[in-house]
Amino acid sequence: MRQLFGASGSQLDPDSIDPSQFARMDPEQLARLTGMPIDPATLSQVMQNLQSAFRSSGAGIDWDSTKRQALHIANQDGLSVTQGQRADLEQAFQLAGLWLSEATSIADLADAPRAITRGEWVERTLPVWQELAEPVATSVADALTESLSSQVPDEMQGFVKNAGQVMRSLGGSLFATQLGHVVGRLSLEVVSGGDVGIPVLPAGSAAILPQNFADLGEGLEIPDDQLALYVAARELAHARLFRHAKWLRLHVLSQVTEYARGVHIDTERLEELASRFDPSDLDELRQALESGALLPQQTEPQKLALDRLENMLALIEGWVDVVTADATSRIPSLERIAETIRRRRAVGGPAEDALGALVGLKLRPRRLREAAAMWRAVTDAVGIEARDALWDSPDFMPEASDIDDPSGLIARLEATARGEAPQRDELDDALERLLSEAGTDGASGDAEPDAGGPDDDRQDEDGPDDGPAGPRPV
To answer: What band does 254 get if pLDDT is binned at 50, 70 and 90?
Structure first.
């Protein structure tokens, strides 16, 4: 800090910080540290954010800096949507919607799908990224405050004393800049709204980014119209699902935030790395940041949250895969297109890159393949309507064991279709015992014979006697 601001610790004053002092920082070293080129405009923005953090007295995170950073990256090489691209995608969406209605019983969208730019994608999805990242941003700010308060030299104790809020603001500003970079880089890769896997667009919205779609098809030797039909069908299927299952969006986002709340920065590892940090060799620090070495091992609650999230995202993506394959079975290059999408996802799709950078969350593509196989088996056994009805409520959703072995789920659905009572399980037995105990307690309270009197008047006012007490609904 003394080298950065050109002052001794005792003289360091947030109000004395001058942006011109930041010009002494070497952009080449910063580029090596981050693993990406940093142009002067970006460096200036970062330094302005730091200065604002030192002068800020609020506890909130400056999400405006996130938006500026993300839009700066998205719009650097961003292209507008041409009339030809818009017309081609509208035609693809229209035909894909007709085919999709034959493959699923879930109704069409109320709002027309759109072709959007990279910058529009950033603006429309940023509120969700902020919601997911806020728990981690708080953890970063807390870790910075704790580390600086315990490790700064004696001559700087006067500066950091009672300056916890400044440190929190600084940590929040640093994380906001990181989030802006992640979202901005993501806007250069995503092809559609559902490409991320989690619902980042508003509910019931479908969109394709023509510029990124063109990059996806480059070198594949697949006709653009066929690729557009497949991508449009996937996007519509994803959007239809989240519009139909209104509970699903909150369910997924709450699972991600539940995992993120358990993320804490390992200050001991950070301090150990800082003790041998060599400013002339930034490779070790950069590798530590990229590999997640500064993140502690997952806690047990995090592991449970991760398992639930992986299973739910696998169920969503598996259903979309099956429905899209059925809807686009007329496309001659279907197998090549589907294989291209699978390979893109297997090497780490946009969602895994973004969630890994923000919260250290890695998802397993293997579960997606198993979930798709489960949905295929269910479709073949009970049909489209019974399959899609499972999304009506979280109570109906398949569990992890059903993904591993769908035979039990299929047997239950087939029994329900025949009008048979479902097979009893441990939960049914426990519920019956609970109701039986409640009925016994109620009967003991009414054991004395009815001798008339005031109680009769009360019964007459409330209505006729329905007989002896029995199990009450739970």
So the answer is: confident
Phi/psi at 8 (nearest 5 deg)? -75, 160
Is the pLDDT at 21 greater than 60? The verdict is: no
pLDDT at 445 over 80: no
Rounded distance between C-alpha atoms, residue 419 and residue 344, angstroms: 43
Tokens representing 326 are 């059925």
**Single-letter code of the amino acid located at 135:** P
Name the packing angle between helices 334-346 and 300-327 (round to 10°).
170
Q: What is the pLDDT of residues 294-318, one digit of tens each?
A: 555 667 777 787 788 888 989 999 9
pLDDT of residue 453: 45
How far apart (Å, rounded) are the C-alpha atoms in residues 271 and 216?
42
The three state secondary structure string of the chain is CHHHHCCCHHHCCHHHCCHHHHHHCCHHHHHHHHCCCCCHHHHHHHHHHHHHHHHCCCCCCCHHHHHHHHHHHHHHCCCCCCHHHHHHHHHHHHHHHHHHHHHCCCCCCCCCCEECCHHHHHHHHHHHHHHHHHHHHHHHHHHHHHHHHHHCCHHHHHHHCCCHHHHHHHHHHHHHHHHHHHHHHHHCCCCEHHHHCCCCCCCCCCEECHHHHHHHHCCCCCCHHHHHHHHHHHHHHHHHHHHHCHHHHHHHHHHHHHHHHCCCCCHHHHHHHHHCCECCECHHHHHHHHHCCCCCCCCHHHHHHHHHHHHHHHHHHHHHHHHHHHHCCCCCCHHHHHHHHHHHHHCCCHHHHHHHHHHCCCCCHHHHHHHHHHHHHHHHHHCHHHHHHHHHCHHHCCCHHHHHCCHHHHHHHHHHHCCCCCCCCHHHHHHHHHHHHHHHHHHHHCCCCCCCCHHHHHHHHHCCCCCCCCCCCC
Give the closest residue to 1 by CA, choosing from 60, 77, 54. Answer: 54
Q: ∠ CA 70-73-75 to the nearest 5 degrees?
A: 100
Q: Which amino acid is at 452?
A: G
List pLDDT tens digits, range 178-193. Answer: 788 888 988 999 999 9
d(CA 420, CA 9): 78
pLDDT of residue 294: 55
For tokens 């508003």, name the residue: 202
Q: Is the pLDDT of residue 418 over 50?
A: yes
Burial of residue 222 (number of CB atoms within 10 Å: 0-12, 13-18, 19+): middle
Residue 429: is it exposed, middle or buried by C-beta count within 10 angstroms (0-12/13-18/19+)? exposed
For residue 40, CA distances in Å to 34, 69, 179, 204 come to 15, 13, 19, 40
Which range is least confidently modeled, 193-202, 224-233, 331-340? 193-202
